[in-house]
Amino acid sequence: MKLAFVGLGNMGLPMAKNLVKVYDTVYGLNRSKGKEELFAQAGGKVGLSLPELAQTADVIMTCLPLPEDVHNVYFADDGILANGHPGLVAIDFSTVSPELSQNIYAAASEKNIDFLDAPISGGPPGAEAGTLSIMVGGKEEIFAKVKPVLEVMGKNIYYVGPSGSGSAVKLINQLMVGIHTQAVSEALVLAKALGLPFDKVFDILNNSFAQSRIFERHYTQFIAKDHYEPGFALELLHKDTNLVQELAEKKNLNLPVGQQVNELLREAKSSGYAKEDMSSMYKFIQEKNNRS
Amino acid sequence: MKLAFVGLGNMGLPMAKNLVKVYDTVYGLNRSKGKEELFAQAGGKVGLSLPELAQTADVIMTCLPLPEDVHNVYFADDGILANGHPGLVAIDFSTVSPELSQNIYAAASEKNIDFLDAPISGGPPGAEAGTLSIMVGGKEEIFAKVKPVLEVMGKNIYYVGPSGSGSAVKLINQLMVGIHTQAVSEALVLAKALGLPFDKVFDILNNSFAQSRIFERHYTQFIAKDHYEPGFALELLHKDTNLVQELAEKKNLNLPVGQQVNELLREAKSSGYAKEDMSSMYKFIQEKNNRS
């Protein structure tokens, strides 16, 4: 079986490297060639273009930061849909709107290409350990066919339902991640103002009803170390909470706190926190309070 | 050792019953006498008034729903401070402002009564199982003295720092509980609008970065069963988020999402959800969207 992986970023590179450990023929493709070199050093194959990969792979996977990237890699003239052979299975791990997933699915179907939306949760540590959560939308028989490939990269692998439903659940996940990030930020800003010992506060709250996986991630990996190299960049969380708001509007829903968090992330993004880990929201809320 | 427990409610009754299993002399006192009967049936002693308990107990504990109740039980003429003997240890498990805790502490000190603020987290199931988190403020040597008593009721028992710091950490916990409750509500309202299967969505998110103890509590114990008998009444969560806002204002802090959640809880409270479990916020957000 010939596998292709497009997008060797923070998530894609460790995922593709895990595939190399199990499958003989795994091709990688990335815009910046440094990542391709790292992939080749880990035993991955490189050197084929996107049209060549779409023409020859059995399964082509994409993991890209922005919806526009996903749109291009599928819909461009040198993209997957224009060049893919009938019977190709395409799997997108990116976080995009259910609508984009469904549009790719529909266009792929016309070419007899099978498409799954399969967004992931777990961050770079989960990608490296092969313990990602993967939430899949599309045809169930195609899911069953590629499940062994997904199992190399993830631990909790779910078939959700029709095309777009993987993306939908991922956006709900991101809505909660965004709100939990703000909960952590406001809690610690208050703790700081009260002069409470941070490690003890974390320990108590993590054993109480304040517990969340995001609290543990943000505190132990970033805030406690005062180290905010991503991780998951704040601008990417904002991209996701923005997709949530667009989805909510389309459904005529008002999600008031989701909306406020999206707005606060937008502010933080344009205040110098775009490229820092999302946990730097704590620093932004702190700074906002110091200013006022 | 003679113990007294004032306030045999949802939390107090199971806590006091656990004390009865270990200590010979545990007196209970409650406004409504039905709870006292339940306590007596479990082997507890009843029949002494608050002044009598304050005059004769070694340790007197209070667990009351509202700050005004706590204020009265300590400061009234027939209350603990006016009647307590020198050397009495008083422990308050209620959720109140750090300021009230410190005021009681100061007034108690003048009477040579030792006072600890010791709010709890874990809900009625934690109270019954004796696995509460207890976060304690006050003198460390008094904490050490009564720790064996606390260990009968809790599993994670923390000395935080000076008087009021137990209450401070508890309010931070409640800030996070309030925000997490809203996160669950908005996430499930969106999932419903998208027609996604709830059990599967919960299972996926609970294994992803959306995980929180509140999500698990709200979903499995209440929302999945469509059953909202408390538990922890929504009006009590609102009381707590309100205390958080008062504390933030006193510190000149703006906690924007905490403030919005407090406002939404106020709305839900006056829309018929006051006495339902706090997880009924999901129903309120749903209803608010259906109305608009």
From TrEMBL, chains A, B:
Active site: K170
Keyword set, alphabetical order: NAD, Oxidoreductase
Keyword Oxidoreductase among record annotations: yes
A GO biological process held by the record: organic acid catabolic process
SUPFAM superfamilies xref list: 6-phosphogluconate dehydrogenase C-terminal domain-like, NAD(P)-binding Rossmann-fold domains
UniProt domain 3-hydroxyisobutyrate dehydrogenase-like NAD-binding: residue ranges: 164-284
Family that this chain belongs to: Belongs to the HIBADH-related family.
Protein name from the UniProt record: 6-phosphogluconate dehydrogenase NAD-binding
